[in-house]
Automatic annotation (TrEMBL):
The keyword Ribonucleoprotein does not apply. InterPro entries: Ald_DH/histidinol_DH, Ald_DH_C, Ald_DH_CS_CYS, Ald_DH_CS_GLU, Ald_DH_N, Aldehyde_DH_dom, Aldehyde_DH_Superfamily. This is Succinate-semialdehyde dehydrogenase, mitochondrial. It is an enzyme of class 1 (oxidoreductase). The active site is at E277. The lineage of its organism: Eukaryota, Viridiplantae, Streptophyta, Embryophyta, Tracheophyta. It comes from Aegilops tauschii subsp. strangulata. Belongs to the aldehyde dehydrogenase family. GO terms for biological process: gamma-aminobutyric acid catabolic process. Its EC number is 1.2.1.24. GO terms for molecular function: succinate-semialdehyde dehydrogenase (NAD+) activity.
Length: 325
């Protein structure tokens, strides 16, 4: 098979596969296109939608609700109400629901991976890997939350006792990027839910389908309505609503440095806790004494993993003179 005909036949297969894959996802009940607020799937209040495209072909996969400040305000209210019951459960009770969510993510590995490949463009093998990776955060934090111990600190006065009691902070706003449509969500939502916090997630508008499918499985797992809400659409409007809310106590974000700075500034007024994972700056350096085979393999992986779209993908490769020559 010549290179050109292989590309042509792959393209042909690609389009056939995309249709069959969407059918499979739909049949599993995992093609969700509306936002999730208080356990209900809802359209944008003004009925607006945005297209989700397959980046490999430009084909439209689905039209999803394009939400803004009003839907976000309702998602925050629902998360805030649910906080009072979810946070009162024992860590063990929350852990059971999270464990079930993990198991459902794993048992729907293929559909989730297909969705990710379709809307994000990463190869299927990497998408399958991301389901393992993404689900592992839910498993890890389900277990870890049972071990949120406090501290007893030696007092400075003899008749006092100093105790540290760790408590869930409240509603968390989680804003995530498109390069890891599942794992960036589970990495934020896992620890938050495990500790008793409730969450409003805003996935990237490029990759909302994976987020919505994962949220569907969370509901099936028994994570209560309102503990996990998903809104997507007008990013600045959703971001501003999260920022200005006094009920949102924490913002967790993975994305660009420019947006991270905006969120940090926007969080100042209500003194929210902020966790930011921002843009990378990743040189790959090959020294004279490197093993060339290992260096080539490592550099290729560093440059092209996830279609070259991770925050630590090499953005320049520096090779020492002795090796370069
Ligand atoms: P990247 O370059 O990794 O795509 P972005 O920062 O543009 O990073 O996007 C990451 C996430 O931030 C996406 O979910 C995007 O919709 C969201 N986002 C972009 N602008 C804003 C904003 N003004 N407020 C809140 N979220 C935003």
């Amino acid at each position: 098979v010549s290179a050109s005909s292989r590309v042509a036949s792959r393209r042909h297969m690609g389009s056939v596969d995309a249709g069959a894959a969407m059918e499979k996802i739909r049949a599993a009940g995992l093609l969700r296109t509306r936002g999730l607020i208080g356990g209900k799937w809802v359209d944008a209040y003004d009925g607006k939608t945005i297209e989700v495209q397959n980046p490999a072909t430009g084909e439209v996969l689905a039209n999803v609700a394009c939400m803004g400040n009003r839907e976000t305000a309702d998602a925050i209210t629902s998360a805030n109400t649910t906080f009072y019951t979810w946070s009162k459960l024992t860590a063990s009770e929350r852990s059971k629901a999270l464990r079930k969510w993990h198991d459902l993510l794993m048992s729907h590995k293929e559909e989730l991976a297909l969705l990710m490949t379709l809307e994000q463009g990463k190869p299927m093998k990497e998408a399958l890997g991301e389901v393992n990776y993404g689900a592992s955060f839910i498993e890890f934090f389900a277990e870890e939350a049972k071990r949120v111990y406090g501290d007893i600190i030696p007092p400075t006065l003899a008749d006092r006792r100093l105790l540290v009691l760790k408590q869930p902070i409240g509603v968390v706003g989680a804003i995530t990027p498109w390069n890891f449509p599942l794992a960036m969500i589970t990495r934020k939502v896992g620890p938050a839910l495990a500790c008793g916090c409730t969450v409003v997630v805003k996935p990237s508008e490029f990759t909302p389908l994976t987020a919505l499918a994962a949220a569907d499985l969370a509901l099936q797992a028994g994570i209560p309505a309102g503990a996990l809400n998903v809104v997507m659409g007008n990013a600045p409007e959703i971001g501003d609503e999260l920022m200005q809310s006094t009920q949102v106590r924490k913002i967790t974000f993975t994305g660009s440095t420019a947006v991270g700075k905006k969120l940090m500034a926007g969080s100042a007024n209500t003194v929210k806790k902020v966790s930011l994972e921002l843009g990378g700056n990743a040189p790959c350096i090959v020294f004279d004494d490197a093993d060339i085979d290992v260096a080539v393999k490592g550099s290729l992986a560093a440059k092209f993993r996830n279609s070259g779209q991770t925050c630590v993908c090499a953005n320049r490769i520096l090779v020492q003179e002795g090796m370069y020559l």
